[in-house]
Design goal:
Largest sheet: none
Strand content: under 5%
Number of helices: 6
Low-confidence stretches: 1-7, 172-176
Radius of gyration: 18 Å
Bound molecules: fe (ii) ion
Number of strands: 0
Order of helices and strands: HHHHHH
Helix content: over 70%
């Protein structure tokens, strides 16, 4: 089929937009999993599902901040404003994840957890729709398939070294130089140099 090249192993390599869209779907599925587990006896299942969601969302937002937003900034008309709005949403997502992590999702606290969780879900859904509308189409338009596969590899590499959870109150995270998730990764990379003197 035209445009569907395969890697040397014979497995079809994924396009960057297909990969990012699939991640949005996986995030939706994990929101479902947490909601249906909430209130389980002892809360173990619900806490485990929440940790999976937090890990996936953190990896996804880190990769977008490192690979997708910097590209969109230059490739889209009004890119600066579009990306600034997405980074502000990602900042709120990080804070909400950390708040929810400290809440009980079973027992008497279940209703409060689900209220806060529903608000995060709504914001995350709106955020994903905005990315799919403003940032993903320019990744497809006018770029060749090999470049899009290389972008997908870069996204997967960024995901694989991302932290498991957002960093609480990241110092300097609001300066716009890096996104709220990726800023933590940048600091971690700098750390050995600081110790060298
Ligand atoms: Fe994002
Ligand atoms: Fe996204």
């Amino acid at each position: 089929m035209a445009g569907r090249d395969t890697s040397p192993g014979g497995v079809a390599e994924e396009d960057v937009v297909a990969l990012l869209t699939r991640r949005h779907d996986e995030i939706r599925e994990l929101f479902d999993a947490v909601e249906s587990a909430a209130g389980d006896e002892g809360g173990d299942e619900c806490r485990a599902a929440f940790r999976r969601l937090m890990r996936l969302l953190t990896a996804h937002e880190t990769a977008e901040e490192e690979i997708v937003h910097p590209y969109a900034r230059g490739a889209v008309a009004g890119g600066e404003e579009i990306v600034a709005a997405r980074l502000e949403e990602e900042r709120r997502t990080g804070r909400a994840l950390l708040r929810l992590e400290s809440m009980d999702c079973s027992g008497p606290a279940r209703a409060g957890f689900l209220r806060e969780f529903a608000a995060l879900r709504e914001e995350t859904e709106a955020h994903a729709r905005a990315e799919e509308r403003y940032e993903f189409p320019p990744l497809e338009a006018g770029s060749d398939p090999e470049w899009r596969r290389a972008m997908a590899r870069a996204v997967r590499a960024a995901e694989s070294v991302a932290p498991a959870r957002p960093y609480p109150a990241a110092p300097g995270g609001g300066d716009g130089a890096a996104g709220p998730f990726a800023a933590v990764v940048d600091r971690a990379r700098e750390a050995p140099h600081r110790e060298e003197r």
